């Protein structure tokens, strides 16, 4: 029989402290029975022979010293099953769609274990998202974690949805699933996602975890872990390729800070806890491919940078863990360009292993490098033009300036439903590069110029 | 004597009932999780546990091993891939599958494998600490010297020859001391040496900007700080692959799993450019990714450098890469905050600076106890948050290291790789190494390099003017400087790590490339003085052709073709 303790001595924010318990395990799941008959759940944060600290997921509202506390004797586990596909669950894993409870095939610890680096397969399968600025210049591969760094008021949700809709591995029809975890997003945003999922039929192959803005902040700390546990289960037990969309990591970090403050921890940068790096790593690192297994977990998180500041601790620490980032730019958005992805600060660290002959095309890297270089220089020249005027530029510089405009207008800009194949993307690349004199294409091997340059092709 | 757990709070566990020494390794809980004593207070002691503590309860048993955290040193280290506390990842995978669970122990060295031991001393010889008593061919090109542990000396009574396991006795001293091929050494204690030298030989990396402009000496220390996305990891991997050291120790400390997987996959396939054998045969990898336990991350750096010291004592040149020391410092911070210690700057513990300097001080060119000359070159990556070099880890590191390779995200965005900023980087070894360069590369190497540095410096000043008035407004000779600098940047400094030829550039080729650019510069200067218009000088075709010479497999002949053409073109311009 599990014992119910009525020995709460202190309630502070989301934490409760108990005395005179039997030994309780660190990280154990806790049920709290309120005097009004409702039940809340929590987790052990600190346990000693004298006092036990529990963080309560649903908040401590309504709790008093009369409340009974039951320790479950095990850590938090998520019941998992293939039937989770098509279901909408709460941030704590309870069904929200009115459907039956999940009949578990297994129950898995939500904290997961760290993957043995020796068992990891370096990711190298190209995922085509149909968006040129990603496929062409910041290629995503299976098993990668590539977040979108965005700002408030920018169309990151649309980009994420477009990717969820269009993402595929060309020439492959292996089972594919989406796990969507909302952390502290508004009801409206959540509706937007759900509608799109339903409209496109994506919901059938999706598992949705919703922790909305008015749900308790503490719950946000386990929501992504629930989602990743479901994703890992589908990937490694059911051989599916899973795309995990976590939104919004910033809300998650706010919850983490809130917890840290409640625990009276020594704060780190900007009040975020000193272990935020390790904590974020325990989420982001749950992406990858395992040698000998068919499935994979790819992460596409959304993160809104407070004040568009990329050096803020949240994007900064994320950038150190994830394999690159897609940066959404306010400037491009203001110019009316969709998707407003600024390729210069964007990066995909695994790009080189996913592109080239046999994967995308042999000239991919050269084309991408050349466009990057041209665009970077063109943007610098814009600053110069603002001072000296366009006429003062040399002919060469004027060409490059024009290239930067072309790049934004033709390569970056595309329709919300425009699904460009990688060939289309590279073709657009060559089309705009051909506006530059061949002598300026120093990053492209002559053999590619002969093979793909429009001027050569027509000969 | 057995104790029990009093309190569990994440990786920090308080125990009571036993009296351990500081840094003793203890096993906590029913599963026997490994941990290290980091604070003693009355009858309680605080332990940092190297594994996940979920579900561990107060009252569970604690056993003290009485030993501090040690690594096993002996044949079999090379080609191994360890976690932060020297557990072989391959054995962990065999024991528990693709995910790392806890409570599993694994020996650092394989106890079953037989090694052919050839003695180099005979009975009756007197031996002292650090002296070689025999050799084992560990891999095709690395001869592993079996040394007397540093604290042991005496007269050899019996010495064996033949095939043995690492823990079998191969030598007995007169006082009864038994010596096996394996010795243990506590990781937090530097291995003793006879003396340290001032490093005089360069570490040759085959990376033009490093060897050419900012060389590090064998036995020196270097730091690579870089904001994320600036190509730090690639630069470090290039160093691990191409450095001309005998042994490479690579510590992936708190970094990405996929990147580590890439290293683990790629290294075994890489060839050592010197011997043609797999590079793994001279490499030890330590992989502790960011989601592995934080305490093991803290230990991983010490595990790595102790292994490096062991090979150094055999007389080898070792290079050690720590990627990244910021993650290590963060692990210290995390543990310190769990201990509720008074924080120093930005929450880092007050002993951050002391720990960093202790670590870097374990680098050096030395004469070992047995009078062998060896070295450890430490290359530490630093990941300053937000690219802010004024943060404590970067600042404390810069106070210690002699070489600074400043990676710059802006250069990376322009696809200028390696994106090392030539204006803010520095090397304090250039003076000390110039004799070596004059002797081994070319007598005019040092002036060539100084001249290139000088031009690049001028360029940055000129660029400021160009930003205001445009390049056409500059006098012609300054326009020429800009052009030469563009050539220096694009033809010399830029190097493609993924190009089969360009990834490694021998010194001879570096010299010839720089010489070629300098030759163009001289000829252009002369032509300009004799009144040839700038436009004509700039449109010399061979100049643009020089851009691609570095990618040619037949570099010398390709360069000759271009240089001959350049001579002809300048001759055709006339004026001379």
Automatic annotation (TrEMBL), chain A:
Q: Which Gene3D superfamilies match?
A: 3.40.50.12240
State whether keyword RNA-binding applies. no
Localization annotation: Cell membrane
Topology class, membrane: Peripheral membrane protein
How this chain assembles, per its entry, is: Has multiple subunits with at least A(3), B(3), C, D, E, F, H, I and proteolipid K(x).
UniProt cross-references to NCBIfam families, sorted A to Z: ATP_syn_B_arch, PRK04196.1
For this chain, the family text in UniProt reads: Belongs to the ATPase alpha/beta chains family.
Q: What does this protein do?
A: Component of the A-type ATP synthase that produces ATP from ADP in the presence of a proton gradient across the membrane. The B chain is a regulatory subunit.
What protein name does the entry list?
Answer: A-type ATP synthase subunit B
Q: Which organism is it from?
A: Methanolobus vulcani
UniProt lineage: Archaea, Methanobacteriati, Methanobacteriota, Stenosarchaea group, Methanomicrobia
